[in-house]
Automatic annotation (TrEMBL):
This is NHL repeat-containing protein 3. GO terms for biological process: proteasome-mediated ubiquitin-dependent protein catabolic process; protein polyubiquitination. It comes from the Eukaryota. NHL repeats lie at residues 204-243.
C-alpha cells in the first residue's frame, strides 16, 4: 500500500516539472527575485526520496504531522488511530528509533525544539479524552514534561489558558512560544507566550479583517522576526511582528483555490513552502527578506497524487529536505532539494 502511494506521488512529482512556473508580479524586490531564477525554471527543485523511511510499515495510522529536529537529525511523526503507537521517531536517514502512545489522544500539530542542552518535542492534542485540548511538551523519549491548557476540557479561557482544537505551535530560539488555536473549535487565536508561559500578546477574534482568523492552522517564525500564520478558512497567510504582534500584511492572491494548511521556510529564508490539503499540492513561494510582505508570488509547484492530502509539513534546517505528513496516503514522504537550485542549503 505504501509503495503504491510512493509510486503515485513519484509520478505526480515528475508532473511538477510541467507545472513549474513563475509569476512576474509583486514588488520590485519580488520581481528581481523572480527574474534571477526564471532561467532555471526547467529544473525540478526537489526530488522524492523513495528510500525514506527505510521501514514504512511503522505508518499504521493517519499521519497528521511531522517535526524535524535538525540539530539531532531526528524526525518526529504523530499519527491517529486505535491501538497504535501515536508518536514515531525516525532519523533523518530513515532509521526507526522508537515510539510512544501514552498521554497522546488525538495529535494534530507537532514541533521539535532542540538546544545543545535539551531535546524536546511539542504536540497539540485535539482529542476530547482525558489528555485532549492541550499542548504538551515531551522529551525525546516521550516523557511528559509540560502540559498547557486544561486536560480533557475545551474552553476559551486565558487565565488559566484553555484551548479548543489547538492546531499547531512554534517555539523560537529564545524559547518564546507561538500557538494557533485552532482547527475549527471555539477559538480563532494567535497567542505568544514567554518561555515561562506568560502571555505576551494575542490576536483572538474570528473574522476576515486584518489580524482576525478563520481556522488558523499553522504558524512559523522567520529569521527577521516575523510570524507567519496559515489562516486556512480565510484562504490567506497573515504576517505579524514577533515582538509587538503588529499586523504586517496578508497574502491572498496565491490561495484563491484553497487555503494554506501548512507554512514553513526553507533554511535560506528565501522561500515559503505551503501545503494545500485537498488539492494535494505544495507551493514554493518567494518570501521578501524584511518588512511588509507585498503580494504573493508562486515560484514552483509540487503536485502530489490525488487524495494524498498533505496536512502539515516541516523542513530540515540543515539539509532543506521537506517532510510532508500525508493524511490520505497515510505516510510521511521526504523531498530533497536539488543542490543546483539551492546551493546555499549545503549538502
Ligand atoms: C499587489 O497586486 C495588486 C493587484 O494586482 C496591485 O494593485 C498592488 O499594487 C500589488 N502590490 C504590490 C506591493 O506589488
Ligand atoms: C500503544 O501502542 C502499542 C504498540 O506500540 C499498542 O499495542 C497499544 O494498543 C497502544 N495503546 C493504545 C491505547 O493505543
Ligand atoms: C477538504 O475537503 C473536505 C471534504 O470535502 C472538507 O471538509 C474540508 O473543509 C476541505 N479542507 C480544506 C482545507 O479546504
Amino acid at each position: 500500500m505504501a509503495r503504491f502511494w510512493v509510486c503515485l506521488a513519484g509520478a505526480g512529482f515528475f508532473l511538477a516539472l510541467l507545472v513549474l512556473h513563475s509569476r512576474f508580479c509583486g514588488s520590485p524586490v519580488l520581481r528581481k527575485f523572480a527574474f534571477q531564477i526564471s532561467w532555471r525554471t526547467k529544473e525540478i527543485p526537489y526530488r522524492l526520496d523513495v528510500g525514506w523511511p527505510k521501514h514504512s510499515e511503522y505508518f499504521t495510522g493517519a499521519t497528521f504531522c511531522v517535526a524535524i529536529d535538525s540539530l539531532s537529525g531526528l524526525v518526529y511523526i504523530a499519527q491517529r488511530g486505535d491501538n497504535i503507537p501515536k508518536v514515531l521517531v525516525f532519523t533523518e536517514d530513515g532509521y526507526f528509533l522508537r515510539s510512544w502512545n501514552y498521554t497522546v489522544d488525538t495529535p494534530h500539530g507537532i514541533f521539535a525544539a532542540s538546544t545543545l542542552h535539551e531535546q524536546s518535542v511539542w504536540i497539540t492534542d485535539v482529542g476530547s479524552g482525558s489528555y485532549g485540548h492541550t499542548i504538551k511538551k515531551y522529551n525525546s523519549f516521550g516523557d511528559l514534561v509540560q502540559v498547557l491548557g486544561t486536560p480533557g476540557k475545551k474552553g476559551t479561557g486565558l487565565n488559566p489558558l484553555q484551548f479548543d482544537n489547538p492546531a499547531e505551535l512554534y517555539v523560537d530560539d529564545t524559547g518564546d512560544i507561538y500557538i494557533v488555536d485552532g482547527d475549527g473549535g471555539l477559538n480563532n487565536r494567535l497567542i505568544k507566550l514567554s518561555q515561562d508561559f506568560m502571555m505576551l500578546w494575542l490576536h483572538g477574534e474570528r473574522g476576515t479583517g486584518p489580524a482576525k482568523f478563520n481556522i488558523p492552522h499553522s504558524v512559523t517564525v522567520d529569521s527577521s522576526g516575523r510570524v507567519w500564520v496559515a489562516d486556512r478558512g480565510n484562504k490567506r497567510i497573515q504576517v505579524f511582528d514577533k515582538d509587538t504582534g503588529e499586523w504586517l500584511g496578508a497574502w491572498n492572491n496565491c490561495f484563491t483555490e484553497e487555503g494554506p494548511s501548512s507554512v514553513r521556510f526553507t533554511p535560506d529564508g528565501k522561500y515559503v513552502i505551503v501545503a494545500q490539503l485537498n488539492l494535494s499540492r505544495l507551493l514554493l513561494v518567494a518570501a521578501p527578506p524584511v518588512g511588509s510582505i507585498g503580494n504573493c508570488s508562486v515560484i514552483g509547484t509540487i503536485q502530489l497524487a490525488d487524495q494524498v492530502l498533505p496536512h502539515l509539513l516541516d523542513v530540515s534546517g540543515k539539509t532543506g529536505a521537506i517532510y510532508v505528513a500525508e493524511i490520505g496516503a497515510k505516510q510521511v514522504q521526504k523531498y530533497v532539494p536539488m543542490n543546483s537550485y539551492f546551493p546555499s542549503f549545503g549538502s
